[in-house]
Design goal:
Blueprint (H helix, E strand, L loop, with lengths): L9 E7 L2 E11 L2 E11 L2 E7 L11 E2 L6 E4 L10 E4 L1 E2 L7 E8 L6 E9 L4 E3 L8 E5 L17 E6 L4 E3 L5 H20 L6 H13 L3 H13 L15 H14 L4
Antiparallel strand pairs: 1-2, 2-3, 3-4, 5-8, 6-7, 7-9, 8-9, 9-10, 11-12, 12-13, 13-14
Length: 264
Amino acid sequence: MPAAQAATPKSQTASLGAVTATLTYTPVGGFQFANVHLKIVRAGVQMLDRDLGTMCDLCPGSGPVSGGKAVHVRNLDGTASPEPEVYVDLTSGGVHCCFLVPFFRLSDDGTRYESLAHDFGNAGYELRDLDHDGAPEIVTKDDFFYGAFTAYAASGAPVQILRYDHRALRDVSRRFPALIRPDRREWRTVIAQQKRLREGELRGVVAPYVADECLLGRCAAGLRFAAKLERGGYFSGRHAPGPGKRGAAYVRALKRLLESRGYR
């Protein structure tokens, strides 16, 4: 038999202004990758050469998303900060995981690139300049809700809107009620559909609805809605066929998650 051929390294490059970013990686089978490195050259000077596999728990073995360019150079901070940032779209593969994005920005003193890695989970993201100020918002979903109360397949998550700002992602969801309201309506529709089913599972879809209510300043109303459903038996018995807390324990767990995630 012929000897197995060595995997062939691949590369992608993106540039903007004085900044060029080059991603190199080696596919090793399936969704697995080796030697995933990022180099950043600014004004002819190499300022970063980093192994991206060391940046997060899921990063080892992860590699670029398929179907397009994975490395980007773009101004994420807005026109007031014209220096572009670099970010890379990675995936760990698998059925439910995971979209990972390492971000890099030039330090304030201009001597190095500072990094941040964010796990978008299953939700992924898109960049949209929602307020037309020159800096894109990151539109995603709060991945903590998936599988938090019942099986993943019966779960949903509320809209989440983030803003990249000085090596941090700030949650600015409350600033964009125009995106929250249609998401809330969609979950209300799904809740009504599940109520009509003999074994409709409501726990995983009521949670994002209540979270949206909280983002719209209606947290008390959302929790009253959940409490009413609990009294009607919709979080127990045949309406809670999957794993997870049931009845009043579910409502308490929902309150705790909303608190811990900053919704209340």
